[in-house]
Design goal:
By secondary structure, this protein is an alpha+beta fold. The chain contains 10 helices and 7 strands.
């Protein structure tokens, strides 16, 4: 089995990290090649592609610089090799682990898990912010469109019938976001000031009103109140 070796061009990159002046008493290449052979990986380039990290990171690992690499990169390489992060560090950073308990595999794994948790929370927050801003943009359409559909169904001759299918992707998007209407246009429902907004007249809570423009909620959160009119 043939393993790729860093050529002269690749070797020039570590100057950025100040690694050319470092000495590497342990030759880690045989260890890495053995792990690659067990994982049926034939070259550093293939390991780079399979793990999703740059080939330079693989070379740094081979040179014994695991202690200077980010935990997420080490984890990706370990997964590509089919071993745990603990096994990877035992092979390439065992001396450092013995000297410093702070760099133990359990500590590194905990650090990575905490970072991943923070990233997931940030992703969820950004998604919620995106949805809220998008819904604000769509507010007028969300309120007007059901009324257009209602009138088009009452009179199929209206040209608006032809454009109804064009809005299905938007309706699908609302479904994916768990956005649903409070009540269909034309429905007669008991007046609830928390859910309904009077367009005209006056109504007591519980009196029957007609939905003129539908309102929306997202799960348990009210987005827009439905606009209603008293039954004359």
């Amino acid at each position: 089995m043939v393993y790729s070796r860093p050529d002269k061009k690749v070797c020039s990159f570590p100057l950025v990290f100040g690694e050319m002046n470092q000495s590497f008493p342990i030759n880690y290449a045989p260890r890495l090649q053995k792990l690659m052979q067990n994982a049926n990986i034939s070259s550093y380039r293939e390991l780079s592609q399979k793990s999703g990290v740059s080939e330079l990171q693989v070379i740094r690992l081979q040179r014994g610089l695991a202690s200077q690499m980010r935990v997420d990169i080490l984890l990706k390489i370990s997964r590509a090799l089919g071993i745990t992060l603990t096994e990877l560090l035992n092979n390439f950073a065992s001396e450092l682990i013995k000297k410093s308990p702070e760099t133990s595999t359990s500590a590194l794994e905990q650090k990575y898990n905490n970072l991943q948790k923070e990233l997931d929370q940030q992703k969820q927050f950004l998604m919620q912010e995106f949805q809220q801003s998008s819904l604000q943009v769509l507010e007028s359409w969300l309120q007007q469109w059901p009324t257009v559909i209602h009138k088009a169904k009452q009179n199929p001759r209206l040209a608006a019938v032809k454009i109804l299918p064009l809005l299905r992707p938007v309706e699908k998007l609302m479904g994916q976001w768990n956005v649903e209407s409070i009540a269909p246009v034309g429905a007669e429902v008991p007046f609830d000031p928390q859910l309904h907004q009077l367009m005209e007249g006056y109504a007591q809570k519980g009196e029957i009103v007609t939905i003129r423009y539908t309102g929306y909620r997202q799960g348990d959160k009210l987005l827009f109140r439905a606009k209603v009119s008293p039954i004359s």
